[in-house]
Design a protein that fits this description.
The protein is mainly alpha-helical. It contains nine helices and four strands, in the order H-E-E-E-H-E-H-H-H-H-H-H-H. Strand 1 and strand 2 (47-50) form a beta hairpin. Helix 5 (147-158) packs parallel to helix 7. It binds zinc ion (ZN).
Length: 265
């Protein structure tokens, strides 16, 4: 492998991609290759097969030809290992891009990445504004929950049909949950703590019932996406007028803090 050019500070040593960053890259492109539109996760049995790689837009170790071809062109991020200079591509597109990199292909990918960065920035700022308040309202609506309601909720899960369908959406669901938890964990935690301290809500009761319901569903092999969706629906019905996003955030918190989904081995 070529050593980075000493006189080009943009080129630094390769930095390994963590699982979280990998997830962020997959979320950024909505699970689809931004060059050809192919799905980046393909179900195989009970697992999801990774059909993507994280590509450098400007190469980490450019060949002498690439240095000439890409000279003077815009670069993203402060160095080649920044999130801004990487993008999830399907394996075919990645291979093709790395092998036959032209100025036009490079600039096209720079443009795509800039659009993706702008889109996710917009998504995060609008969701922050609207959802913060809503989450508090949703959680407040949980103050009226009693043991009977929870019991009924449990029975509703049991009534869910046993589903043997492949978890096509499971990985996407996982990323969704992780993203919600990243953004809203503290807000949700504090809101629950406050209500619990004011004796308006018994958090342990709510949490343990949600957990046991998840586990029961799990035993009956109900699809995790289905469980998640039905919990969101249930929560939405308890807090009239709230958005699905706010309810998804609260359920994600339970999934995360109660560790209700088993790791897929
Ligand atoms: Zn592709």
């Amino acid at each position: 492998m070529d050593k980075p050019e000493i006189n080009d500070p943009y080129l630094i040593e390769r930095v390994a991609i963590t699982e979280n960053t990998d997830n962020a890259h997959l979320l950024e492109v909505d699970g689809m290759c931004p060059l050809c539109g192919n799905y980046l996760l393909i179900p195989k049995g009970k697992r999801m097969n990774k059909k993507y790689q994280i590509a450098h837009i400007y190469p980490n170790s450019p060949t002498p030809n690439e240095v000439i071809e890409l000279q003077g062109l815009e670069r993203l991020g402060t160095n080649c290992e920044d999130f801004e200079n990487k993008v999830a591509l399907c394996k075919d597109c990645h291979g093709y891009y790395d092998d036959h990199k032209t100025k036009e292909e490079y600039l096209r990918l720079v443009m795509i990445k800039k659009r993706l960065l702008a889109a996710s920035k917009a998504k995060i700022s609008t969701s922050h504004q609207d959802i913060d308040e809503e989450i508090v309202l949703v959680i407040n609506s949980l103050t009226n929950i009693d043991a009977i309601t929870l019991k009924k909720m449990e029975l509703e899960y049991k009534a869910l049909k046993i589903s043997s369908k492949i978890e096509q959406t499971y990985s996407i669901l996982k990323y969704k949950i992780e993203t919600y938890v990243c953004i809203y964990f503290n807000l949700i935690k504090e809101t629950f703590q406050n209500l619990d301290q004011e004796k308006k809500l018994n958090f342990d009761l709510v949490a343990s019932e949600v957990r046991s319901s998840f586990l029961k569903c799990d035993e009956e092999m109900v699809s995790k996406s289905e469980i998640f969706e039905s919990l969101v629906k249930w929560l939405k019905s308890k807090s009239s007028g709230s958005s699905s996003e706010a309810c998804e955030a609260v359920i994600s918190y339970f999934v995360q803090s109660c560790e209700v989904f088993h790791e897929i081995s």
